[in-house]
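so my prof wants the structure for this chain in the tokens format not the other one, which i didnt know existed until like an hour ago. anyway here's the sequence
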Amino acid sequence: MKYVVLWLFVLLALPIWTVESGATTIMIGNFSGSTLSGWKEKQFDGETQYTFVLDPELQKQVLQAVSHGGASGLFFEKKINLEKTPWLHWSWKPKKLITGINEKDKAGDDYVARIYVVIDGGIFFWRTLALNYVWASSHQQGEQWDNPYTSNTQMLAVESGNQNFGRWQYYKRNIREDVLQFLAKDVKYIDAIAIMTDTDSSGLEAENLYGDIYFTSE
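here's what i got, hopefully its the right format
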């Protein structure tokens, strides 16, 4: 059910901004600058605590997410031209993992770290699509599956288990290519980015650190 609410929130949360022509880097989450400007929080069931902390390894501010059986996400609505800036960059470091769940079941739809790429369906909210990059508990790295609530949301495990636990992991994904491969849609724009650390389905605990999020042209 959290995905239906997510779609409606993305549709209503903020005005859509158009990317300036010629931009090569578009900052979405300036967490090292200790700011959530442009982000809004949506609570689903309980609340995830999002706060800025100083990471001793990086010696800069990062966004800490702590969930004790709750779920709330942060959403940033911005129209991104994937022909100009298709590459999404992000990083994260889990500090407390989720174990013993089946993520294909509704009772196991929880993740220590996830980032959503959202394609707005307009007034037809059921046409809204989302691709979730997640740190999985029960799936192997590289696996893809339908979200248990809706096949319009695809889950992709970019990390799994405890192999890289406690270490910063950095990602660069071509969103246009991934949307084509995993959602079977050739799109020019995406409409929003969201992050969430959630444990409302399992009632467990999870903790994660998020680094800056941005798009680039190459």
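also thought this was worth mentioning. Residues 39 and 76 are 5 Å apart (CA to CA).
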